[in-house]
Amino acid sequence: MTKLVESMDRGDVAGSDLSSSEFLSPQKAALGPNNNGRGDSSGVPEYDIVKATQYGIYARCEQLLNEGFDVNQRDAENITLLHWAAINCRMEIVKLYIQRGAIVDSIGGELNSSPLHWATRQGHLNVVVYLMLHGADPTLRDGEGCSAIHLASQFGYTSIVAYLLAKGISPDMQDRSGMTPIMWAACRTHCADPARLILTFGASTSIQDRIKQNTALHWAIQSKNSTVFLLLVNSNASLDIPNDTGETAFNMLKQMKQYDWISKRAVDNVLNKAERNGKRSWFHDYHKDEDLKTWVTRSLPFVVIYALGLIFSASIELGWKLLLLFAVYLTFRGVGKVVCDDKFMSIFPISVYLATKFWMYVVWFFYIAPEIPLYATVGFVSLSTLLWYNFLRAWRGDPGVIKMSAEERHKTIISLAEEDGFDPKHFCTTCLVRKPLRSKHCSICNRCVARFDHHCPWLSNCVGWKNHKYFIGYLLSLVIMCIACVVGSFMLWNKVLGVDWTFIDVMRYQPWVNFMMAQAVVHGGWVLVLLICQLYQILWLGLTTNERLNWTRYSYFGAGKGNRNHGHNPKLFHRGVVQNFADFFEIGFMHPKRIDWMRAWVPQQMDEDEQYSDREPFLRDHRDNYQYV
């Protein structure tokens, strides 16, 4: 049994030697009878009940129970039959034993564990669910002082962690030594999902264990776990809490000499941010004023473009202009360093766009409109109205954010787990929602978006199911507006300089007009390319930008079981150019296929009208003390 304990502690199920009362590894179990937990009713081997349980020979187990074997009888190592059925994931036998009166929370083995502990160690979610539905207590501790949530966190079983938390287990539950689930994830699990899930449920990052007084950050650094370390830092975990030796996470990072587990740049960014927040200087309060920093970031492009326009239009020598341009660059860079933070790139691009549009309007109405016919300005204003309508709908509109209340999130996790349909790949551990077909979690907006296309920094918003068509309208109207600015400039030059004007004449006439026309040409060019790419993906491919870049990663593009090609089908949603056009823009007389992408789960190879399943996950009627918070 010692080998069993060591194997279980490592999570290495294949390393156990078998005897009549030892753990049966999945590899060896495959050599035995039918692996589904019932076995074959014909020709039942004459195994004892322990080995029959390990091999999953349902008929033999049932036969021995009918002959009077006590379902709660323990073997020589104080282990019950339910333990063996749980650790080997013999679901039918687990059900049989519980129906015959097996004690769900029986304690056994060298680790003094319950069947729930054994099932959790091996990641058998279906067994964990069944045991808890029949009264298993997830708060029980084993001989090492760990409950099920601590074991699931150690071994990185995201689905079990989610289920236990949704059933009401505290994310800050401490084991005998004071370790919390996030601490175990920090020192044992080098993947993001379990830790992210625990943090999303509100786990505290400042709790210290009882032995070393370490926080989760201490454990992440000691274990060289860069994934969980960055998650904790992004969750604003404190670097200043000392452990029993007086070391803080900040000091541990400062003393690092090797960066074999994390990049030096990442460590420097964390240290610089911590040092900057700790200094008390005349601009310390400014650094803390997020509203002021946001206001400066938004205003900066307006000031810079105005300064550039003044320099270009100034009647000074070229050398002085170059010197002033360099001064503007240094000022911009200096201010940028002061205001630049994690939100900078989500604010600055759209501010550049708004500033450019503002000064284009100034140039049009103060320089161009007085010199050209009225109808041109009327057309310009009409196009501008169309542009602003689409821009506002794409910028401020809902892209299709998948929203759920806390209770709905917990119910979803529970129902998925109890229906044996919990796949971490289709579940967002940040938003705690089941991800519909074609959806994606945006790391910038920190939310899941239905039929996600991309995050647009020029909108400071995601482009998804509900605002994608307005985004296309915005691109189209923006290209037309840029063309209108260029045409207006030519009309101005023809009126003022005559039809035989030269490039030198234009450069000397009005630098402000030239400056803004150049911007219209540049912006109009790349926006036109973006529009063409978008229309190609929508009409000719039936894909989103995200799917076009990552389609090989999505299971719904993979070959089905009946597909002999065993390849991928990137045109799963392609219905022809005309029909794609009708579906995307929802043109009624063209009979578009209307799909609620917030409720589309799996593509079904069925009749076209039933291609997408919008069935809500079934929620069991059974309730217990750990159903949901």
UniProtKB/TrEMBL annotation:
Domain spans labelled Palmitoyltransferase DHHC: 423-551
A Pfam family assignment: DHHC
Keywords, sorted A to Z: Acyltransferase, ANK repeat, Membrane, Repeat, Transferase, Transmembrane, Transmembrane helix
Coiled coil regions, renumbered to chain: none
Enzyme Commission (EC) number: 2.3.1.225
Transmembrane segments: 303-332, 344-366, 372-392, 471-493, 513-543
Its membrane topology: Multi-pass membrane protein
Annotated catalysed reactions: L-cysteinyl-[protein] + hexadecanoyl-CoA = S-hexadecanoyl-L-cysteinyl-[protein] + CoA
Protein's cellular compartments: Membrane
The ANK repeat ranges on this chain: 77-109, 111-143, 144-176, 212-244
PROSITE patterns: ANK_REP_REGION, ANK_REPEAT, DHHC
Signal sequence range: none
Chain residue ranges for the region called Disordered: 1-43
Ranges of Basic and acidic residues composition bias in the record: 1-12
A Gene Ontology molecular function term of the record: protein-cysteine S-palmitoyltransferase activity
GO cellular component, one term: membrane
Family the entry assigns: Belongs to the DHHC palmitoyltransferase family.
UniProt free text on domains: The DHHC domain is required for palmitoyltransferase activity.
Name the record gives this protein: Palmitoyltransferase
Protein source organism: Folsomia candida (Springtail)
